[in-house]
Amino acid sequence: MTGPAPAQDLFVLLAGLAALALPTDRARRLGLAGGVVAAIAAASLGAGRALGPPAERLAPSFASITAGHLLLSLGLVVTASIEAWRERGRPEGGSLLVVLGACATGLLALTGLVPPGGWPLAIGTGLALGGGVLLAGPMARALKLAQGFAWLDRVLLDRSGLPATLRSRRARWLAVGQAAGATGALVAGHLDLVMAGAAITLVTGGRFERERRPESRGPWPGVLLSLLPLGAAWMLMVEVAGPVPRSLAQLGEAPYSPAFQMLAALWLVLAAWPLLGLWPAHGVRLGPVAPLAGAVLLARVAAPILPFGVEHWQPLIFPLAALAVWHGVARQRAAAVLGGLA
Fold first, then answer.
1. Banded pLDDT at 218 (limits 50, 70, 90)
2. Span 183-196, mean pLDDT?
3. Out of 15-24, 72-81, 89-98, 104-113, least confident range
4. How large is the greatest C-alpha to C-alpha distance in the chain, in angstroms?
5. What's the N-to-C CA distance of the chain in angstroms?
6. Which residue of 22, 61, 209, 280 pairs with 219 in a disulfide if CB–CB is 3.0 to 4.6 A?
7. Sign of the C-alpha dihedral computed for residues 236, 189, 52 and 317 taken in this order
């Protein structure tokens, strides 16, 4: 792997810009899907590079499979562009320039990523992922997943479908407060600040949804569903850390045993899942920025500080995320599909 590391990140940016520059809604959606796939590949590479120099630590199969994601992303961007220009008759100068830049950057990223002899696996991965995308909708219809999920939502899981009212001034300020809490959790380097930011995100999100749907029973059961495990994980991590400084960079040195990591990681996953809004907690509405706080709990706290616990619960988390994706496909909810994939 000799290509420059920023090439993948630049490709994510240019793929998103290329999608937004396309002239039709369908083409923009398809292009943005390519940008999301590219972002997943870039995140995978970032996690791998954290282990050490890529050429020494990343397995050839890892690099090839990640390259398959980039190939799929590039294919989605190109397909979206061709479809849009075919409908409009000719490409516009600005969109053509951005698309060409995205393609050039994607090819540069691929050239630096695929190891010798790794192209068959990369191409096979891209084709398999593309085939899965094409088959997902027909499979969901054939299995009547939409009817089953709709019944389950109606009876048990998602009974908060009251129409939202226009946002009041208070709702707008609550949205600003929630964004501030989630952003604080994202950038803070201290455990207490991250957890406090997540708690602020939860409470302001609950108030925000209450303002938007005053006729509903309120989002407070969902707030408690996330706030209680968040508080439990926070208290346990502080107590066991003892004299170890509670900065995120130093908490890895805390005396967290494997058994403790399993318990604390479970609490964090339970706190993050309603924030992410994924099935079966998709009926819990916690405001527009709640998924960011959920991602912070998993990516900045659980994964780096409690790695054994996260690894232990992966066999449960991954199938649940897959079900969340299928639920989004069946109910035609793009945000749920993308959230589950991410």
1. low
2. 88
3. 89-98
4. 67
5. 25
6. 209
7. positive
Q: What sign results for the dihedral spanned by CA atoms 167, 172, 177, 181?
A: positive
Whole-angstrom distance, CA of residue 43 vs CA of residue 21: 24
* 3 against 241, higher pLDDT: 241
Residues 6+ apart with CB under 8 A from 66: 41, 44, 45, 48, 113
Q: Is the pLDDT of residue 234 over 70?
A: yes
pTM over 0.70: no
CB 158 within 8 A of CB 283: yes
Owner of token pair 């192209």:
119
Separation of alpha carbons 329 and 339, rounded Å = 12
Whether residue 280 has a cis bond before it, omega within 30° of 0:
yes
3-state secondary structure 169-201: HHHHHHHHHHHHHHHHHHHCCEHHHHHHHHHHH
Query: At 294, is the secondary structure helix, strand, or coil?
Result: helix
Q: Which has the higher per-residue pLDDT, 266 or 178?
A: 266
Residue that has been written with the tokens 């398959």 in this structure: 68
Which residues have CB under 8 Å from 315's CB, separation 6+?
Answer: none
| Structure token digits, residue 112 | 């630096």
Predicted local confidence at residue 196, as pLDDT: 92
Euclidean distance between CA atoms 142 and 130, whole angstroms? 19
Q: Sorting pLDDT into bands at 50, 70 and 90, what band is 138?
A: confident
User: DSSP letters along 259-279, please?
Assistant: HHHHHHHHHHHHHHHHHHT-T
Task: Give CA separation, 44 vs 118, 138, 150, 319, 339, in Å.
Answer: 17, 29, 33, 19, 16
